[in-house]
Design a protein that fits this description.
Helix content is 35%, strand content 15%. It is α/β, with parallel strands linked by helices. The chain has one domain: Rossmann fold (3-Layer(aba) Sandwich), CATH 3.40.50. The longest helix has 22 residues. The radius of gyration is 17 Å and the shape is globular.
């Protein structure tokens, strides 16, 4: 009798698979959040940075960012340059776009930096990532002079309706 394995991870990071259980739900939730936050960003002329799950891979950030119309997407696979990102936001402003949405995977790394670890793993537990969204928002506010806010979707992406 053949053995069937069911891959369940929202990160969609299992080699030789097209999609894993949970990934579509996570992307759908993040996309809806981006759509809702875009209204707020526009109404207040702000930069909003949305941190999504993705320790080592940026599939959720990439898919949700494209689907949700993000203005920038930062993923762990590609180091980013905050000055270039700030320049792009300023150019958007010059063209009349007063708000910007930035999606960042929790494991994204600025050029020359390292991933932000909230807590080092011990006793077989993994490191706890998180905080890159707040850091990016703070730096973008300094570099652009625009008010920035950050939000972490975190475990909301993992949940589903049980009713």
């Amino acid at each position: 009798m053949p053995i069937v394995g069911v891959l369940k991870t929202i990160d969609n990071d299992i080699v030789c698979t097209n999609s894993t259980f949970g990934f579509d739900t996570a992307v759908s939730f993040a996309t809806e959040a981006l759509d809702r936050l875009d209204t707020t960003a526009h109404a207040h002329s702000r930069v909003i940075v949305v941190e999504v799950m993705g320790r080592h891979v940026g599939w959720i950030a990439l898919y949700a960012g494209v689907s949700g119309g993000a203005d920038a997407i930062l993923i762990p696979e590609v180091e980013f340059d905050l000055r270039r990102l700030a320049d792009a936001i300023r150019r958007r402003e010059q063209r009349g776009r007063r708000s910007s949405i930035v999606v960042v995977a929790e494991g994204a790394v600025a050029r020359g930096g390292s991933a932000i670890i909230q807590e080092r793993g011990t006793d077989g537990r993994r490191d706890r990532f998180g905080g890159i969204g707040a850091e990016v928002g703070k730096k973008l506010e300094e570099l652009t002079g625009k008010e920035a806010r950050s939000i972490v979707l975190g475990h909301l992406q993992r949940g589903g309706c049980t009713r």
